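User: Can you help me understand a structure? I only have the sequence.
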Amino acid sequence: MTREIADESLDDATRQMASIIFKNFIINRSKDAKFDNYWINLDSEFKNQIKMAVLATLASPKTLVRNQIANILASIASIEIPRKEWDELIPNLCENSTSDDINIKLASLTTLGYICEELYPEDLNDHLKNNIILALTNNINNDGPIEPTKLSIKALLYSVPYTRPNFQVQQERDFIM
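Assistant: Let's start by predicting it. Here is the structure, written out as tokens:
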């Protein structure tokens, strides 16, 4: 292996580890009492700067980077969305899932999947749930690239708890199925 390839791999591994540490810190994975509510208590302007910096990296052409950034965003969302903060995140991701830029589309679908995995149905209003379901189902396409379809199906598995009201209406149930 050449030095250049080894350095690139090391950089990716370093980025991945940094992302994992940051995500675990945000959600206080260590359950250390001194870090309880740390994210909540941060200055809102500082939090917004962090969120914008993370979002700016989301559409990376590298799958590993997209996945790690999507994980960070879902961790922040799992704290803020139940508190009715960062209301624009899910609508923006749903809108970006229709992008012609494949990296933006994949990043948005990946993030929506992780958010569905993190949030409880009661954390979202029906409008947001419907937007998520619509974004995911609209990206299941036999004629296009396979990757958005795979990510949408995977995310739909985590969104099943959100679909209960939809399955009570035959037309919506038929559309999802």
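Now, to help you interpret it: The chain has ten helices and no strands. Residues 1-7 have pLDDT under 50 and may be disordered. Let me know which part you'd like to focus on.
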